[in-house]
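Need tokens for this chain, all 870 residues.
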Amino acid sequence: MQFSIVIPTLNESENVDLLLTRLLALDLVPESFEVIFVDDGSTDGTPEKIRRWEAHKKNIHLVERQEKPDLTASILAGTAIAKSDIIVVMDADLSHLPEQLPAVVSPVLDGNYDVAVGSRYIPGGSTQGWPLYRQWLSRAGGLLARPICDVSDATSGFFAFHRKLITNIPEKARGYKILLELLMSGQGNLSVIEIPITFHDRAQGTSKLSLSHHLIYLQRLITLAGGTVSIGTASRFAIVGFMGIFVDALTFQWMISWNSGLALAHITSFLAAVTINYTLNSKWSFRSYHEGNLDWYQFGRFLTVGLFALLLRGGVLALLVYTWHLPAELAIFPAIAATAAVNYLGSAFYVFPENRNRPSLDIRWRVAAVGIVLFVILLRLVYLGLAQLIPDEAYYWQYTQHMDLSFFDHPPMVAWLIWLGTTIAGQNELGVRIGAFICGLIAMGYLYAFARNLYDKSTGMRAIMLLSILPFGFASGLVMTPDAPLIATWAATLYYMERALVAGRNIAWLGMGVAFGLGLLSKYTLGLLGIAALAFVILDPAARRWMRRPQPYLSAILALLLFSPVIIWNYENNWVSFLFQTERLGGGGHTFSVHYLLLYIAIILTPVGLYAALHALRYICSKNNNYDKCERRRNLFVLIFTGIPLVIFLGISTFDTPRFHWTSPVWLAILPTIAWMMGQSRTLYTISSRLRAIWQPTIIVSLLAYTFVLHYVVLGIPGIPYQFLTEHYFWKEATLEVEKIAEEMRSQTGQVPIVVGMSKWSIASALSFYNKDSNKMDIRSRNMFGDNSAMYDFWFPSHPPSNRPIILVGMERHTLERDREGDEIDHMLDQPSTVQYRIVTRNGTPLRHLYYRTAQGYHGSAISKLTKRQ
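Here are the structure tokens for all 870 residues:
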């Protein structure tokens, strides 16, 4: 007997005859297989039909179960009496074509694989006859399992496996998707192949699937992922949650009625509710996972989850109140509901996890990666349109008000993305930043694919988790600067370069040309990858062959064509942008700044990230004769594409002061190796275990820092004054004050004043963005006084003398008295006042100081910086 076919049945009398007829008609020796029907209490004569076949065929058997119908239990019962060591499971309703049986069982019979899955969702597979909603449910079930299971069709009911594997399935397994139980019981040690099949909807009888089956599937999926979830815990958690909502809402309403402020009210009410929730959840909802009176370690985890939920719901509350204009008394209820999932899933997976049958370390990291990445995406979505623009974002928004092929200090991609976002979402923070959010998703997708190609799926998931929580990755998906498209295109270019140079894929050169060209349109820094690619081709013999083929040159031509708008703009403007970029090198006065570069790297990567990156570089540089050719080429690729840009930045920092964020994209190439080391339990055991131990608190602290800062700038934190953002933030409220000053001067003089932002471009841009059309001001930058102001030199190259009143606005007092070179600016003004200031407030809370001075006219600048350059 080569294999046994186990077929569960429940009222399938109309299909038995045709199923057996087609099975026995296969080109198989009857003695080579047996068919075991396991009936779960059919009432339509199914057992009688099977007995008639059993009486005449020795390889057909019937098992009648008396227990409650359960597909997993039926398959286990059939496997228990099977005579073969290889088991095939298929449905009785002819949705699995008997003619496809040989293709499914052959890989296991040949001894090449432990499990063979008949898959609907790989090339060659399909589903026929199912209504759309059934297809969506099936797809959704498979997608939910993908993070912890590496097959495309984890919900398939047609598969073959070695009988010994069934012993790994836990006794409490139940439901209708035993394949998932089988795959997860192997903890990643199984060799699995997917065989394309065509799935047909049943022609006779009715489906046995119901809502309860789907709920059981979700429960088992969460349990297999390491969470403690059941109908009992969920219902008890819901009851406790409703009690918490009552306390939460009641406290909130009481505090709002006393005008305590939105932030203080929601934080206080949340803390009151969470205290009750923890007490009741630990003693009742998850009582089987809580021992003793008070577990401080567990309580600390509960507080951590609570802080995440609290700071996230602050954003939801602000969104509902400030953007959707709901009354606070009503907004609190959807805000509570929106964060209930964070509390429940955090409790199920983090506070009260499954400890009796814990999944493997790899699965736990996967689940953590999914949770963290989803939380980061949700956090960005909530706060995307709430946090005010920083001056850099407002400056790039100004690009869109003067659209051109390129710009003096940056290529045009950031302007194109902001224009598209504001066209769709409006002239607001959401419209400006939606491009950064999309770039963040693109970066995640390409980094995942890049890491998966270098190592495996688990490494890819950990890599995007690291990208989400490291400061440079989190910020690039939220703040709309040129770094947002740069990170996305850098990740895309790395992916296509690895596919072309390491994997040898011809088509990847097309993707490389597009990604490289779009990257140059984002920021010139991406050109460093071209130098790295050339170095790799020279050093790697296998990649050197591409120098004799047309693909690299065609790819370069494609990138150059995409970059042509920048070339055309520079040609029309005396190459000023290219000259500016080269002049920046050494512009810092030939100062040795390597220590600053290292400090900046430690900030954008966190100290733990820098430590991990150094160990990863050390590992791939180590001489190890056990490396095979593929590993050597992979390590060389990572080393070159991290090392070349890093060495260039190190060289620059020996004579110039680097910018804070310059090296951010460099670390994308090494992130997969860092992520791979996090999951190693045998090789590099000491380093890996040490890194795992310090990564966990780093992830938590980083996420808490981001949520804290976002909540702080949007709603505030009671007891913490706004003392850290006095210069570069809260320009929305500051603009209102400037509008008041301008209106006062207009009333006194009868003329509209000129408002001058006394910084390079920050103040003028922020004032322009937040200045409403109903009270439009004439806003200029400091180039009116002879200093350079980047694109303002092009937009407003000069201003003639004027008798209109002038308002100078500065971040600091001294900028209103002298220009950048220390010259007095009073001689350019008519009757200048002394420096004055106002305290900018929001709802009575002091935010910042606004420094300004006024004058009755403007004499003009004797020598403009732009004229001096020309």
